[in-house]
Amino acid sequence: MRTKPEMMGQLRPAFSELNLSEGFEFDTEMVTNEIKEDCKPLLLSNEQLTTLMNDMDVAIRNGLAKDTNPSSIVKCYVTYVQDLPNGTERGKFLALDLGGTNFRVLLIELGENNYFHMDSEIFKVPAHIQTGKGTELFDHIAKCLAEFIKKHNLDSKKALPLGFTFSFPLRQVGLTKGYLNSWTKGFNCSGVVDEDVVRLLKEAIKRRKGLNLRLTAVLNDATGTLMSCAHKTRFSNNCFVGLIVGTGCNACYVEKVENAELFDGDKTKPHVIVNTEWGAFGDDGKLDAVRTKYDRQIDEDSLNPGQQRFEKMISGMYMGEIVRLAIVDLANQNKLFEGRLSEQMKTKGAFGTSYVSDIESDKANYKETLKVLAEMGINDPSLVDCANVRYICECVSRRSAHLVSAGLAALLNKMDEKSVTIGVDGSVYRFHPYFHKLMVEKTKQLTKSDIKFDLMLSEDGSGRGAALVAAVAVRDELPSMTNGFSAK
């Protein structure tokens, strides 16, 4: 899929500057009425979204409160990150970014006059390791770290600060201590749930021998994204939300310390970043009114049935499969392809979310749609079939963007900051042709009228943020160099 390098690290246009009609409105002229009717459950009204937004607000407040947190679905874990980059950070910092089938190791160097240099390398996590023993996962990570350090000739005499982005539900009890709540995104390694992932990584590093690293922070990808964008906007100092819409979906935000009742860190500082883990929203039934039969099937067939239901309606790990299930269902009713289906289209997971973006990238013709369908073994579909498939994709991605918008509006309304930059990362947001526009339009409708916001695509992703958290942690060992949030 196409990348958008010109947008990386730049503020996207404000709502008033967007031409939402340019290549954006659904072209439904050729879509059959029966397909439109069957897709209606995928279209959410503002009334439904407002209900979800209000339910999300209640869930977040329950997650923050000491009395209600144990029973809350949205856990709102405190991150112990209380300071933003301020430009005084100096030195070399390593980052490890684990959150899916690939992980990254990064080396960042910060210097005088805003000097910044970064090297990074992507490593794969083989499928057998994703569902094997936890020790095998962390040993694999340590092995890749050692390869990266050797390749870049890093001095082993001086302990390098390491920031660890661990993009799974994590209950933190300190900046360098966090317990895995549950695996998501297809991972299911044994011996890790309810264990301190920092300890497991340290033990694996120790087993490698010769690795001289100082693990200074553990965080999730949303926090890393917030920190990465905060570094870019450090002069305006208004990046208060980090959002991930990729393989998974999650958000973090800046909260007042007094509202985070489980926080037992430095209360002389007024704010702390809270990791909502909102992917679990709806696990208590709050989404049941808007879940479709396809959502229920996705959930039942997943590695974690009954969990992460909000995420399963949004993220890139599931979006393509939702579309495939809808196509198969409608074809079986003779409403698509004259009832003909290829074996590939019948195969679970064969229709990737990248196909959704490709199909919606079509302009006046169905060139990309025809290409995708050919790859899926569907040859010579009619133009009506192409229009119907594109409409299904649009309905699924539109719903995804609107669900994210409802969550985002809940955070913006709760914080009640009048100007907010939202750092965003994730493959769905990066590569889907209209996801940004859909989000801006709907979030604007659901947010208080006096709140202004911009969405910033995170440069270099959450890994850069992990290195910056490590840099800030080292910097803050010098008390005179701290710099908190400027939120109210």
Description:
It is a single chain. The chain is α/β, with parallel strands linked by helices. The strands form three sheets. The protein has a six-stranded mixed β-sheet with strand order 1-11-10-9-12-13, with helices on both faces. It has a five-stranded mixed β-sheet with strand order 4-3-2-5-8. A two-stranded antiparallel ribbon has the order 6-7. A hairpin with a 5-residue loop joins β3 and β4. α6 crosses α15 and α9 runs antiparallel to α12. The chain is globular and about 70 Å long.
Mean pLDDT: 89
Number of strands: 13
Order of helices and strands: HHEEEEHHEEEHEHEEEHHHHHHEHHEH
Per DSSP, what share of the residues sits in E-state strands of 2 or more residues? Answer: 15-25%
What is the 3D form?
A: globular
Cα distance, first to last residue? 41 Å
Q: How helical, in percent, are the residues?
A: 25-40%
Strand order of the largest sheet: 1-11-10-9-12-13
SSE class: alpha/beta
Work out the helix count.
Answer: 15
Largest sheet: 6 strands, mixed
CA gyration radius, whole angstroms: 22 Å
Outline the low-pLDDT stretches: 1-26
